[in-house]
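Troubleshooting log. The previous structure file for this entry was overwritten by mistake, so regenerating from the original sequence record. Sequence copied from the archived sheet and checked twice against the printout by T.R.
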Amino acid sequence: MAVEANATLLYIVVGYLIVMLGVGAWAYGKTETAEDFMVAGRSLGAVVIAGTLMATWMGSGTVTGGANSIAYDNGLWPALLFGTAALIGIGILKALAPRIRGFDKLTVPEMIEEELGREGRIISLVVIAFAYVGIVSYQFIGLGFVLNVTTGISVTQGTIIGTVVIIALAAMGGLMSVAYTDAISAFLMLIGLVVAVPFVVLNAGGVEGIAANVPETHFDALGNLSFLQFFALWAPPLLLILADQNMYQRIIAGESDEGTNTGLIAWFVGVAAAMTLVPVIAFASRAMFPELDPGMALIATTTEIPVWVGGILLAAAAAFIITTGSSYLLSACTNLSQDLYKGFINPNASDQRVFWLTRLFVIVLGVFAFVLGQYFPTILEVQMYSYTAYGAAITPPLLAIFLMRDRLTKRGGLTGMIVGALLAVTWDTVLASPYGLDAVIVAAPVGGLLIVAVSYLTTDTSTPTASRT
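Regenerated output below.
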């Protein structure tokens, strides 16, 4: 079965995009300071926190990569197991939320500098900017897939349009606009998935029809993946979510501790639902479209179910992609303005200068992300590469700051960060994956072990400890 563009679906998607841009315009008028732009003035309630956390985490990586691609390529069970990484991470973040909120910092590099000095801030700034640009790049491509299905234009042309929309939304109102559009998008996505699943399964021939038209290995526990291959896909999302600056900023942006806690619980429930429903749709898509690009699995099904159902699902997918792209783009630009410019170049910069410089960086970095996205063959590949770089260099030292308390030393933290980052970047590309192991299996564990070992073998008297509460 071939995928045929359906222009009727475009009207629903465009209508929703207009709503999102309208919210962005509203937020533009509400955003006056750098804190408004970066953490929404710390004014978000439980419902908005839950929605923005879910929509930010589950973007193009979910609906065109991650669980979607794994379900199509490898089977339903490994895709469902893949989703447990995020759920474990959310549980740990909930436990750490009081400490995260008590840190009183706007960015992860600021948190790391508090314990590991300016060197730690510089390393984390470079790594986060690199990883987030990669993540933003495949959001652009994901929206290109949506526009390809709805209009028939090429994925490249759709990607250019997606780039413009995502940059515009991030630049207008910062987190204030992103958070509210996130919340709307998250609830729309859940509704779209719940309504679409029975239509997709029936259209694919029901359970028996699907079973007869997918490879036999797709019913094995790990599909056609070995344990190490599966682990190399499963570990990067866990490592990213544990230290993801976007999640930390949203936890900080909560108006109260109680509301933030409620929002985190609702986020867990929403992710559990979405990470079950997306694989089911993508798995059914394999029976319907056996020769499809895996990234198109969920999106393609919208052309074969009733238009109103497909429109809701496609608008929801587009919403997830757009809000995630805006969030990661905004977060990376926050690092450039808050950590690089104000932290090192001009410490006395005014709030307004930092505010407007962040908007400028949104445009510049957005264009760079588009260019970068043209060099990766699949969304899943750039997704895992970005997650691994972040998870190996940022997650171990950040968790050490929260969990090792006074035992962490500057030498230990910096050693783990540098070695983890170098291994993440060079293990697969320069060293050609020695022993057949993926970078994530080596980089993060080695970095973490070095942090612990070097910290216990060294002593620091200059590292601040006031924030370790």
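Residues 59 and 182 are 10 Å apart (CA to CA). Archived copy saved in two places this time.
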